[in-house]
Write a structure and sequence with these properties.
Strand 2 and strand 3 form a beta hairpin. By secondary structure, the protein is an alpha/beta fold. The radius of gyration is 23 Å and the shape is elongated. Strands 5, 6, 7, 8, 9, 10, 11 and 12 form an eight-stranded mixed sheet that branches. The protein has a four-stranded antiparallel sheet with strand order 2-3-1-4. The protein has three domains: 131 residues, Orthogonal Bundle (N-utilizing Substance Protein B Homolog, Chain A), CATH 1.10.940.10; 37 residues, no CATH class; 189 residues, Vaccinia Virus protein VP39 (Rossmann fold). The chain has 18 helices and twelve strands.
């Protein structure tokens, strides 16, 4: 037999993520070229689920296969991870998961490892579900690094930490803005929940995939026509193209700045001008803005459901965030507004950065969006994947 096209594509993604440090979404994009919609969807489910659950899968492989994963050849390990994910988390016939995983080993030219892979897959088929069911609640069972579990327990308590881990192992809702699609309106004006993205409408710039929380961050800026507005970390441009007024959208990375320019053009945001620069060292003429948005780089602990590999590469960045916030605030006129928004759930990168900035929070923000009021700091907003079914964002509106 031969492995299915979806499994071959997922296998390539898993190998690229863990052997080449590739981003899962980019690796998937190239791996599924030529597949039909059904195969693409299955390939994504397999690849993303395997990357997401890899800590738990490796534990099962080591426990039942009785060999440390670090000693396995990369092609063998990738095939076992894919098979273990199907056996542990999907309603896939065990023989299909086992046989096709072994076939992936054979296709990699590792005939000597076929018998071993076959034996491990048989043990996984028999024992992985009881093994997973018996794991204690915590980061091993839900496949997170210990440090994320520690941060969430500190900031939210153990019950909410578990709730966040479970929520971000589930597929996120799919939301678009733009031309009203065949979808369900949400609590964010102009945001629609859909079952699939209309690729033609996307290619024509009539819609844009963007979570409700991300759209909320742009709306919190409250920009108006006639104002000068700075978006300091703007790529790929979802928020920048929502802003009103004369918008200067900045990004430091050349590739991301090009992507930003392309998306601004695609979406017809003629009020947005793109500048490639470091927001901490902007050209002298970029000053006196009425409003600014600092969507700073962060650990991304609020978007782990959407980016399956991020939990394994995430790092808190409070020092960089504070530098950016202070630098951008210095470019806003006295009496102006800065919105600090980050897609993470970590007090070190959220409220503590604002507290250290010395800027005064605007308490009216939470009155405008009471359902997203921060539970401990009501002057801020905090969206949570487990409570609000959208990305996790911290949002503060600050007076200069």
């Amino acid at each position: 037999m031969s492995a299915s096209p979806a499994r071959r594509a997922a296998y390539r993604v898993v190998r690229r993520v863990f052997e080449e440090d590739a981003y899962a979404d980019r690796a998937l994009r190239s791996a599924v070229e030529g597949l039909d919609d059904r195969e693409r969807a299955f390939a994504q489910q397999l690849a993303y689920g395997t990357v997401q659950r890899v800590r738990t899968l490796d534990y099962a492989i080591e426990t039942l296969g009785k060999r440390p994963v670090r000693k396995l050849d990369p092609p063998v390990l990738a095939s076992l991870r894919l098979g273990a994910f199907q056996l542990g988390y999907l309603d896939v016939p065990p023989h299909a998961a086992a046989n096709e995983s072994v076939e992936l080993v054979r296709r990699a030219g590792l005939e000597r490892a076929v018998a071993f892979a076959n034996a491990v897959m048989r043990r996984l088929a028999e024992g992985i579900r009881p093994l997973l069911d018996g794991l204690p609640e915590g980061p091993l069972k839900h496949s997170y690094p210990d440090w994320i579990w520690d941060v969430w327990r500190r900031d939210f308590g153990p019950d909410d930490a578990l709730s966040l881990m479970r929520a971000q192992n589930e597929p996120p809702e799919l939301v678009v803005r733009g031309e009203p699609p065949d979808g369900e309106p949400t609590d964010i004006p102009g945001a629609y929940r859909v079952s699939r993205v209309d690729e033609r409408a996307l290619a024509e710039g009539r819609i844009w995939p963007q979570s409700r929380a991300s759209q909320l961050a742009a709306l919190a800026v409250g920009s108006h026509s006639g104002e000068r507005v700075l978006d300091a970390c703007a790529a790929p441009g979802g928020k920048a193209t929502m802003l009103q007024g004369d918008v200067t959208a900045v990004d430091v990375n050349e590739g991301r700045a090009r992507e930003l320019e392309a998306n601004v053009a695609l979406l017809g945001a003629e009020n947005v001008r793109v500048v490639r620069a470091d927001a901490r060292d902007l050209p002298a003429e970029l000053t006196g803005f009425d409003r600014a948005l600092v969507d700073a780089p962060c650990s991304g602990l609020g978007v782990l459901a959407r980016r399956p590999d991020l939990r394994w590469r995430a790092k808190p960045l409070p020092e960089l965030q504070l530098e950016l916030l202070r630098a951008v605030a210095a470019r806003v006129r006295p009496g102006g507004v800065v919105v600090y928004a980050v897609c993470t759930l970590n007090a070190d990168e959220n409220e503590r950065v604002v507290d250290e900035s010395g800027l005064a929070p605007d308490p009216t923000l939470a009155h405008e969006w009471p359902s997203y009021r921060h539970p401990r700091r009501p002057e801020f907003l905090l969206t949570r994947p487990d409570l609000h079914r959208t990305s996790g964002f911290f949002i503060a509106r600050l007076s200069v």
